[in-house]
Amino acid sequence: MTITSFGPANLITRAPETHPLTWRLRDDGEPVWLDEYQKKDGYAAARKAFATLSPDEIVQAVKDSGLKGRGGAGFPTGVKWGLMPKDESMNIRYLLCNADEMEPNTWKDRMLMEQQPHLLIEGMLISARALKAYRGYIFLRGEYTTAAVHLRRAVKEAEAAGLLGKNILGSGFDFELIVHTGAGRYICGEETALINSLEGRRANPRSKPPFPAAVGVWGKPTCVNNVETLCNVPAIVNNGNDWYKSLAREGSEDHGTKLMGFSGKVKNPGLWELPFGLPARELFEDYAGGMRDGFKLKCWQPGGAGTGFLLPEHLDCQFYAGGVAKVGTRMGTGLAMAVDDKVNMVSLLRNMEEFFAQESCGFCTPCRDGLPWSVKMLRALENGQGQPGDIETLLGLVNFLGPGKTFCAHAPGAVEPLGSAIKYFRPEFEAGIAPARAGDLTQVISPTMVGA
């Protein structure tokens, strides 16, 4: 019924009616190049869009489909497109593909770009037509060297076939597409930091408003969408909104399918295209195979290192944004990580917070100074040298770096797993307080001192 995208031994039959993102994938994992892609109905949606739909009709179709961003934030794509200016005199517009996939435990966009580069190109072509953007950039994570090679070859194939460049499909519409590799910064996943980096500036987030739709790259109207988001567009144009909405399970408020996965000590780690709204337990047990022999599930993260930890009983939630929110965190990228019973949570969180502290752009004080402070205390607790009050101070930092208190969402994402880990596994953190100091109440730091 679904596909494990890495490893031919795990491939299972899928169809265009149920798996719009993955049905074209080859069993040997090799890229689907232009000839094969077109034989598998590739660019049919682009031809339909150019021949029968106006730009506004494409925007409306995507809006009506309920497609939401697949990078983690989940903002409605059609609404985002609708923010682009209507003024026809503003004829220099840009479409940026956010392919800076640096969220730990997430690799879904990599698969799409390495194995189906033309699906992304077709999605960007239709989207550019809708947005009246004459140039597009794929802002690619620098470490994705194979994806860069495959995307550049696919761009050349599309140009030679008249699917990119001047007067595409005889429509009079021009669209140039450029693959740009980044310098390796997690913060470039934030769209305005990505824009700054593309312009050759330091990758700091920008103040908003103005939003990129009004003032984006080089001061021009700009739309930024995730790889997986753009790859959904051709199927929506080809098959319509009713079909797209029918793909999700009953009860899901999100429509379509999603690339979902599980990593960690599971029997069958992998990536699958599945309908929104299936129980997370089905993903964990039926697709990931449950835990390996000798390991038990201690907790899990639903979608990358920036999402909160959940307990085994939370696997009964429906796996879509609202379903995961009901049990206390975010769905994020939808690629879950299983934490086994042999993992110490203090060590795991210390490792995570080191990553987030290193990747902070340093622009705002709470993030720049707060995250290294959390690392220092977690390292002390890990080594059994913590002080009374350290846990309260960490919880204070979780509050002080929470949503709305920093310049962008980097710090809130960094401390969300920390707060949930202390909530569910506080005794492991308390065990790191040095015995000689455990009774010294004079060293307790009130959480109010750090903004709790």
From TrEMBL:
Coiled coil: none annotated. Composed of 13 different subunits. Subunits NuoCD, E, F, and G constitute the peripheral sector of the complex. It catalyses: a quinone + NADH + 5 H(+)(in) = a quinol + NAD(+) + 4 H(+)(out). The lineage of its organism: Bacteria, Pseudomonadati, Pseudomonadota, Gammaproteobacteria, Pseudomonadales. Its EC number is 7.1.1.-. Residues 346-391 form the NADH-ubiquinone oxidoreductase 51kDa subunit iron-sulphur binding domain. The keyword NAD applies. It is an enzyme of class 7 (translocase). NDH-1 shuttles electrons from NADH, via FMN and iron-sulfur (Fe-S) centers, to quinones in the respiratory chain. One of its GO terms (molecular function) is 4 iron, 4 sulfur cluster binding. Keywords: 4Fe-4S, Flavoprotein, FMN, Iron, Iron-sulfur, Metal-binding, NAD, Oxidoreductase, Quinone, Translocase. This is NADH-quinone oxidoreductase subunit F.
